[in-house]
Design brief:
Blueprint lengths: L2 E6 L11 E7 L10 E11 L14 E6 L1 H9 L3 E2 L1 H10 L10 H14 L16
Parallel strand pairs: 1-5
Antiparallel strand pairs: 1-2, 2-3, 3-4
């Protein structure tokens, strides 16, 4: 069973809900399916923290991320693959170094682009040449 660490909408969410759960889930399950384990929460909307006027309202506050770093490290050690958005969150949180192994796809893309850039332009697709000698 391939396990993926990704963002999922919490149960009972609405279309306007912007809160996500960080979960370990089977790769073949849907985004909102029941996860193996809930690892944390992520609220991407900056909210004003505190108890004064405007508390909890969207505005110029702080984005909220709460997670269990021990459980995330456990699942990464078991071979779970984080999604691109989770990799970005874990890098910002200091759980993954900036040059981690989970960015393999972008490195492969860069290598492919470097190889394509070194090809001669005469072999481009769409250009045809005929000679009638």
């Amino acid at each position: 069973m391939v396990v993926r660490i990704r963002l999922a909408r919490p149960p009972g969410h609405t279309k306007l809900t912007t809160r996500f759960d960080l979960v370990a889930i089977n790769l073949k399950k849907a985004r909102d399916a029941k996860p193996i384990e809930k690892l944390g929460e992520y609220d991407p909307v900056p909210r004003i923290l505190g108890t004064g006027p405007g508390a909890g309202r969207p505005g110029q506050g702080h984005k909220r991320v709460e997670w269990s770093s021990e459980r995330i490290q456990y699942w990464l050690g078991q071979g779970a693959q984080p999604s691109k958005s989770v990799v970005a969150l874990l890098e910002k949180g200091g759980l993954l170094p900036p040059d981690n192994k989970y960015k393999g796809n972008s490195a492969a893309r860069l290598r492919a682009m470097a190889l394509l850039g070194s090809l001669p332009e005469s072999g481009t697709a769409g250009s045809t040449s005929t000679s009638n000698s």
